[in-house]
Amino acid sequence: MPAGLAVFTAGLLLLHRAIPDSVGRVGSLLETFLPWLGAVAALLFCLALLRRSVPALVASLLPVAAWTYLFGGLLLPGAETGGRGLLVVQHNVGDDNPDPAGTARALARARPDLMALEELVPPALGVYERTLAAEYPFHAVRGTVGLWSRYPLRDVRAVDIRPRTITEPWSRGLRAVVRAPRGELAAYVAHLPSVRVRASGLASAARDESARLLGDAVAAEELRTVIVLGDLNGTVDDRGLAPLTARLAVPRRGFAFSYPAAFPLARIDHVMARAATVGRIRALPGTGSDHVPVAARVKPLGA
Measured between alpha carbons, how far is 267 from 259 in angstroms, rounded to an integer? Predict the structure, then answer.
């Protein structure tokens, strides 16, 4: 039994893309929590050791090897971009955050060059603007998403990522050109629709449509270097985000699980880039939000 479960777990890890998404989006649901199959692999290995069964031990190595192949690189040291490039922070600050001023100060302590925030609602928006004004003289807000920068911004506009099923006023995307020291780049901030796990499976159709719209916007971007920051309500392994993630470089070091803050299970807050490398992504100390902020350094190619 443990040997069969080990082979099955290895199959889920290596062949997760083959699991159909047509019913309940089971494939996407599995991919959301795919790294946690490592815990199953470790348990099966320990059970095999306790049983002192050579066949079970050999079988238990299969999911361990599969997990290491997929995620082992995230644990390796290095892969930082050093002090060059832009340090960026991404955080869904939470629309019911009881301490927006404290959250703003905590984020500023990381001394990022760019800071993307989501769920900016009045009157908290004014608190963020006032608290961050001294260190971040340039900022832009569209709807409930915003970008704070140490460098000038131009050509700020909203990005329409609203799914067709949402008919009420809804603005969760912006694009701005950042006049960074080593050249201009386009920065996108987005907050994709939430997903829900129901008895029928994963309800992610609106999120998936929004990801396609954002991917199309990035594909049409004329500037070479692009940074995408946001709460995408999905992980980089989730095929629902593939229309976006397939166009961008994602961090290859660090797990930085960001949600829920009480016990982070998945990184749904992201730093991605085009024509740039993304260094190790790390989680910052928690704030008053139900998300944990994440930070990474982005270095444009050739910089």
Answer: 6
